[in-house]
């Protein structure tokens, strides 16, 4: 089994995963296990020496909102916090693709995230979005199947066509052709739906590669969610 290489000592010192002020205050006020977990794994989000910049007012408010709703700030946001322009762009794109109105349900979008991340073997996204599939579906087994092999899951024809397209677009984007789009149409997807499937797929391919390049580590709280 491959072992994880130890990081330079200066990185461990410089790259402490500091909680936002709001998260620290919230953790101090609450004995909730989620807060303890969020505070307890607060070391080495990524393997790169990138110091957190001062949060803009908008991002400080966003971190507080995450802490209030989730009980922690996702490490991916902290990882991007060395540059406010990049953090704000990442958050805006994520929120638009994953939370804005779409004929794709939130669960279906999370399923795409996990199927793509499984193809790319992205530890961060498999952990975080596998937890999201478990929560949204209320089915822990489905979350595990998405992580391991979505083809083993008992999916609807619509979901299977969607994930087959997303995985092909991930693994062989040059091979996608009209026949693939037609399968989606026959499964009931509109032109806008196909665009949304492609956009979510593209976003997570980008996110997977950045996370893998930086050795991004998920919050430990994700491992216990919706089990």
What is the secondary structure topology, with strand pairs?
Layout: H1 9-14, H2 21-29, H3 33-40, H4 57-70, H5 75-79, H6 84-99, H7 106-120, H8 123-137, H9 140-148, H10 157-171, H11 178-186, H12 191-214
Helix pairs in contact: 6-12, 7-8, 7-9, 7-10, 7-12, 8-9, 10-11, 10-12
List keywords for this structure.
Single alpha-helices involved in coiled-coils or other helix-helix interfaces; 12 helices; AhpD-like; 2 domains; mainly alpha; disordered N terminus
In short:
This protein has 227 residues and is mostly helical. It is built from twelve helices and no strands.
Overview of the molecule:
The chain is mainly α and 227 residues long. It folds into two domains: 19-45 and 53-93, Single alpha-helices involved in coiled-coils or other helix-helix interfaces; 106-214, AhpD-like, CATH 1.20.1290.10. The chain is 64% helix and 0% strand. It is built from twelve helices and no strands. The chain is globular. The protein starts with 8 loop residues before the first helix and ends in a 13-residue tail after the last helix. Mean pLDDT is 86; it is low at 1-40.
CA radius of gyration is: 18 Å
| Global shape | globular
In whole angstroms, the N-to-C terminal distance is 27 Å
Q: What's the structural domain tally? A: 2
The named CATH superfamily of the largest domain = AhpD-like
Looking at the chains present, what oligomeric state does this protein adopt?
A: single chain
Name of the CATH class of the largest domain: Mainly Alpha
Uncertain residue ranges: 1-40
Query: How does CATH name the architecture of the largest domain?
Result: Up-down Bundle
Tally the helices: 12
């Amino acid at each position: 089994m491959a072992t994880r290489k130890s990081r330079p000592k200066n990185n461990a010192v410089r790259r402490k995963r500091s909680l936002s002020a709001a998260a620290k205050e919230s953790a101090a006020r609450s004995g909730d296990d989620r807060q303890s977990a969020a505070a307890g794994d607060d070391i080495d989000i990524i393997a790169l020496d990138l110091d957190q910049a001062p949060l803009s007012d908008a991002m400080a408010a966003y971190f507080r909102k995450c802490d209030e709703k989730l009980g922690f700030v996702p490490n991916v946001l902290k990882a991007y916090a060395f540059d406010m322009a990049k953090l704000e762009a990442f958050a805006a794109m994520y929120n638009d693709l994953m939370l804005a109105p779409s004929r794709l349900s939130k669960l279906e979008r999370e399923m795409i995230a996990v199927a793509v991340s499984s193809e790319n073997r992205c530890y961060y996204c498999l952990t975080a979005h596998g937890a999201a599939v478990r929560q949204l579906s209320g089915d822990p087994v489905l979350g595990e199947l998405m992580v391991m092999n979505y083809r083993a899951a008992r999916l609807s024809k619509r979901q299977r066509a969607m994930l087959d397209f997303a995985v092909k677009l991930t693994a062989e984007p040059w091979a996608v052709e009209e026949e693939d789009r037609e399968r989606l149409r026959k499964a009931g997807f509109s032109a806008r739906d196909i665009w949304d499937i492609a956009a979510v797929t593209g976003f997570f391919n980008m996110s997977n590669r950045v996370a893998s390049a930086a050795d991004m580590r998920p919050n430990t709280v994700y491992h216990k969610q919706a089990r």
